[in-house]
Structures are given as C-alpha cells and as structure tokens.
Write a structure and sequence with these properties.
heterodimer, A: 337 residues, eleven-stranded mixed sheet, globular, B: 347 residues, alpha/beta, disordered N terminus
Chain lengths: 337, 347
C-alpha cells in the first residue's frame, strides 16, 4: 500500500478539514497517510474525530506557509515548513507522493527544490482537471488541462512533453486507452498562434505516442473533444480561473434570480435536480486534486478551499497514481521521444 | 542510556490481580448490528465465533506473566448474552486456550417471562450489580484491571464500579446517576446495598476500552486517565507493559500474533504505538523500550525524524523533554451528572 504525505497545514480550512479528510481515508482504505504539521494540533483534531490510527502517522513540522505568503520568500525563510518537510519525506523515500491544498507557488517550489526531475523532462507542468461534456458512455467526465501555472511561457518541445505527460497520466489514472491530446489555441488551423504554437503543432503531429487531434479553441474546451489540453502556464492559469469564476457567477445569478421573482424561484426549484447534477459535476471536492507532473515523485495539488471530502479524494488520487505507476509511464514516454 | 532510563515508572501490581473482561466486541468479534445477525448468534458453533485480533495471546500472556512473577491472577468474564449460549462461548474459550475463573451471563429469559422488557436492553444496572457481587468474594487487597468496549456502556459501568469501590461516589449520587440512566429501581436498591457492604479501596487501576466502533477518543475525556481507549490490543499490551502486567516478550507475542493472523504490518503497529503515546496513555520511555525490543525482532519499524540530522546531544535533549508517564489511575473525581448527560446525547 502506498504511503502518502499530506501537508496538514496547507489550505484555507487547514488543519481541521485536512486532518478530517485523512481520518476518513484511514477508515475507508489501507492507504498509509503521513500527516505533516503541528503534531499536537493534529492529534487534538484526530481525538475528536473517528479515525484508524493504524493507517496514520504524524511528522511534526513546526512552521507552515500561509496561503497569502510570498512563495519564494516563504520557502527561503521557513525551512521547517510543513510543505518542505512533506516534500523531503517523499524525496527521501518515506512517502510515495505528496498532497497539499496549500499555497500553490510554495508547493511548486518545494517540489522543485526536493524532487528530481524525470530524465529528459525540460519543464514540469501543473495540471488541473475540469468538467466537460461526455461524448460516449463511460467517458471520464473530467479533462486534464496543463500547464496551469508552473510555467509562464514555453518552448514548442516543452509543450510536446506536456502532451506526453498528460497523456500518460490520463492513460493510467483515467484509464483512457489512447487519450486525445489537443493544443489550446486561438484557431483550429495549424498556422495560428505564433511561432511556438505552430512549431508545437507540427512536432505534436509527428510524435507517434501522442494521439494528437489538433488545435482546440476556448469554446470547445467543455465539449469533451479532448482528454488532455496543453497550453502555456499563463494561458492555462487564465482559463482555469475563468472557469472557476464562471461557475461562481452562475450560482450567484441563480441565487439572485430566486430572490427577485417567485416565478424564477419556482423555475429554479423545478430545475433543482439538474442543478444538483451540475453542482456534482463541477464540485472540486469530487476529484480531489490535480497532479504536478515532470518529477520522479508526484504532487497532488488540491484546491485551496478543500474540505475533508476533497482531501480524502486527493489522497485516493495520489495513491492510485502511485499504484498505477504514473511517473514510470511518463519516464518511458519521454525516453521514447 | 535510553534503555536504562526506560524502566517502567508505574508501581508493581498487587499480589492478587483480577482481570475482568466483557465478552461481545471486547473478546468476541460479535456481529449483532442487524436483526439477522442477532438471530444467528444462538446458532453459531464455537469454531464459528471469532476472537478480536490479539485478545487471545494477550489474556494468555497476562496469566503467564503474573504466574511467573509469583502473583495470583484471576480472569473473569461478564456478558450481557443469555445463558442459553453459554455452552458455545465456554467451548470457544476452551478452543482458544483461555483459562478463566468465572463467567456471568445475563438471564434475559427471566426478564422476558416477568415482562421486565426494560431490563432486556439495560446493561448498567445488571453489570454494576454483578461486578459488585463478584467483588465481595475477592481478597480485599486485590487490584483489578477491566476490559470493555465502546459499543454499549462499559466505560460508564466500569468507572462507576471503580469509584463506588474507592468510595469516591456518595450513595445518593450513585442513586441519582442510575436513575438518570434509567436503571430499574430494584437494581438501584441492590446496587446501593452492595456498594454499602463493599470493602472500600481504590482497587481498579485501569479500564481499557476497545474502540471497536472507532469512537473518537475525546468522548472519554471526562472519565480521566484511568480509562484508556485503545484502538487495538497492541496498544493495550503496550500500556499493560507500562503497568508491569506484561513483559516485553509478551508484548512482542501479541504483535507477532497480529502480524501473522490479522494482516497487521510493522508499519501499522508502529503507527498504533505512536498514537497511544501522542494521546498520553503511554510514556515515551516505555514506547522506546517497546519499539527497540520489537524492532530487534523485526516486528516494528524504527521511526526516524525525516530530514533532520540530530546530534547525540540534541537527541538527548529531546528525550529529556519527553513528557513523563501518565499516572496509573485518576484520583480526580468524575462529574457523573455531566458525563451521563453527554453520554446520553451521543446514544
């Protein structure tokens, strides 16, 4: 059974929700969890919850990096921060993967500091999953978007590697035999998007290990045409934040409408089950977190607002990725490039 | 140096030690959550009954260690099951090689015939009076260690029993508590009389509660440090080592049994040991002794501080700072009215 290190102090609702999520994992699975953070505080929370101590260990870390901290400065100043201790645990072989809902920048820097990059990987990529339409029964309801912030600008070869890494992850974790990889661009024509994207398009087409379906535009992102969408970090981050913002806007609008007019309220009530399904689909807690790919070890980054359920699912995703040998699969794919 | 200082801090047990065990969910892995499971119990053969992992080597070791130390040891079972299943249970105990000195069953049929339906489910009055009756026949200087579970009312029954014997609970307070719980008036009177007649001494040294339902340990905080909520019998064994009821080889025997028969791993055992230390029931010194002994036999992983390169001096300071062992029992008075109110709220 894999051992997963969890940054107990990272996230808006840490450590309470993180510890509770891990407590749930300890009861439902045999995954070995190592909670990294303030030992006394963690045990205090455990004492008040239902848990199985046989599957939980605690690694004390006397500092933590706040969500609002400047990642670079915090990583330098807080050498005993929980995210750094967690990354060290994984790097030294005491855990197989790391889960955090904390400061994304600090998590990326902690991994870069302690994890060895996979041989041949030029840049690591932070992925995110987002809900999309399904085209056939059994298709994964989530697509993988990378990079969403580990880089700003990329070279063509780096985008190709993102395609290979995302494809390997989708094959192993989402069990898609031949994941369809698309390049996010401003047009479907291969000449669109400037030198880097044109070159990336040409190179992606030439890689036999990638099921490349061409460029994809923003309006097709949610249609389920591709399983893996690759882009530069700057663009990916904008897309991700916009999707989140839109989801919040829809919920706000529905709430306002319900307050404004009783007929709208009635209509919304009739659509309640549909909204429920939509909410389930867009619920970040259901998928737990997304991976930071390109290192010999895995980081699963959960949403900052993660609750216990999200953490539980993130730990399960991490364990699944470890069991299914995602990093090995990526290394093999990069080696063949 | 660590091992020299790691001597168990708690006083040696008395000449006569009594171990009292609840049966269902403490000794036996009884399943009676559904009506179907409940109906099946009377028809179970002894060989079908399953003991809770680790309990058999633990009870055997308790007797063995006490005998080797020249102490008189007695093992009693108390069950809320009807005497109709006594034969199967006694045969199961024989199959497991458990020697015992007495076993009590609850005569449910008698309550049914007399129409005392409330008494069918009520355990506090029944167990408390049975415990007090049994105590009357024990040597006055004997001490007791009690084992129960978190399914019904063992924590409160055992705590009441301990405090009644220690004369920490006034007669009217006992009456009030039992009345609040809903014990039948006849049993309250009986408990009252038995309590008055008992030889008063602080004889219950520990109460171990097997957290079969995984009840959060904080639920037992009002019951003091005398009560140890334990998630498995390895945790219990480690604490019994601290109280000098078990030796390190006996703790290792329990660990070995858990690994060989119940799918435990050295990692799971190491986590259990760390948990009971963090919860303050086992001293760091005893935990170190257990860990070193089991590690030498390949039964436990040694924990290391990741990323930290500590000097010998830093390790020594860290060890010195380690918290002292918990006291053997809690002399502090328990507020039973608050306890009962909270306890009822969770049921």
């Amino acid at each position: 059974m894999p051992t997963i290190a969890i940054d107990a102090m990272g996230g808006d609702f840490a450590p309470d929700e993180v510890v509770k999520g891990v407590a749930q994992v300890s009861l439902e699975t045999d995954i070995q969890c190592t909670l990294v953070g303030d030992e006394l505080r963690i045990q205090e929370i455990l004492n008040a919850t239902t848990y199985n101590p046989e599957n939980i260990s605690i690694q004390h870390a006397r500092e933590f990096i706040d969500m609002a901290d400047d990642p670079k400065a915090a990583i330098r100043a807080k050498r005993h921060a929980s995210i750094l201790v967690g990354a060290r645990l994984v790097a030294e072989g005491d855990a197989d993967a790391l889960v955090t809902a904390g400061n994304t920048g600090a998590a990326v820097l902690a991994c870069a500091q302690h994890f060895k990059p996979i041989h041949g990987v030029r840049r690591a990529a932070l992925a995110s999953v987002y809900p999309r339409q399904t085209e056939y029964p059994g298709q994964d309801e989530l697509a993988l978007l990378l990079d969403v912030g580990a880089t700003i600008r990329c070279e063509a070869m780096e985008l190709v590697q993102f395609g290979l890494m995302g494809g390997a992850y989708a094959r192993r974790v989402s069990k898609v035999a031949s994941p369809r990889v698309a390049l996010l661009n401003m047009g479907t024509e291969e000449t669109k998007g400037g030198d880097v994207l044109v070159q990336a398009h040409r190179q992606l087409k030439a890689v036999p290990d990638i099921n490349f379906i061409g460029n994809i535009e923003g309006n097709d992102l949610a249609k389920g045409k591709a399983d893996v969408i690759i882009c530069e970090g700057l663009l990916g981050n904008v897309v991700l934040k916009m999707l989140e913002g839109l989801a919040e806007l829809v919920v706000d609008l529905a709430g306002t409408a319900a307050r404004e007019n009783w007929r709208w309220k009635l209509g919304l009530m009739m659509l309640a089950s549909g909204f429920g399904r939509l909410r389930d689909l867009t619920d970040y807690a259901a998928y737990g977190g997304a991976p930071f790919l390109g290192f010999e070890h895995l980081l699963i980054k959960s949403h900052g607002r993660s609750n216990a359920r999200a953490i539980k699912n993130a730990v399960k995703v991490a364990a699944k990725a470890v069991r299914d040998g995602v990093t090995r699969e990526i290394a093999t794919a990069i080696e063949r490039l | 140096m660590v091992l020299r200082r790691a001597k168990r801090p708690n006083p040696e047990p008395s000449r006569v030690v009594i171990f009292r065990w609840d049966l269902d969910k403490t000794y036996l892995k009884s399943e009676f959550e559904t009506l179907r499971e409940l109906v099946r119990i009377p028809f179970e053969k002894p060989e079908d009954k399953i003991a809770v992992p680790g309990v058999v080597p633990l009870i055997r070791s308790l007797r063995q260690v006490a005998t080797q130390a020249g102490r008189d040891v007695r093992v009693y079972f108390i069950s809320a099951s009807p005497p109709q299943i006594a034969k199967a249970i006694k045969e199961k105990l024989a199959l497991d090689g458990i020697e015992y000195d007495g076993i009590v069953f609850k005569n449910q049929l008698q309550h049914l015939v007399r129409g005392q339906f409330r008494n069918l489910r009520e355990q506090v009055g029944y167990k408390l009076t049975e415990l007090l009756k049994s105590r009357a026949n024990m040597p006055p200087d004997s001490t007791e260690v009690l084992f129960g579970d978190d399914w019904e009312s063992d924590p409160i029954i055992y705590s009441l029993y301990a405090d009644v014997l220690a004369n920490r609970l006034a007669a009217d307070e006992l009456d009030n508590v039992l009345t609040t719980i809903g014990v039948a008036p006849k049993l309250i009177t009986q408990a009252h009389e038995l309590a008055a007649a008992a030889h008063h001494a602080d004889v219950v040294t520990r109460i171990y509660i097997n957290l079969e339902r995984r009840t959060p340990p904080a639920h037992f905080r009002l019951l003091g440090t005398r009560l140890v909520p334990a998630f498995n019998y390895f945790q219990t064994a480690a604490c019994l080592y601290q109280d000098q009821h078990l030796t390190l080889p006996a703790v290792a025997h329990v660990a070995e049994h858990l690994i060989s028969t119940s799918g435990y791993t050295p990692e799971r055992l190491a986590n259990s040991l760390a948990d009971i230390v963090r919860r303050g029931h086992l001293s760091h010194a005893c935990a170190i002794a257990v860990r070193e002994y089991l590690h030498a036999r390949g039964l436990l992983q040694r924990r290391r501080v990741v990323g930290a390169r500590l000097s010998a001096w830093q390790r020594f300071l860290r060890w010195l700072r380690a918290q002292p062992a918990p006291p053997p029992a809690s002399p502090a008075a328990i507020n039973y009215q608050t306890l009962v109110a909270e306890w009822r709220g969770t049921r």
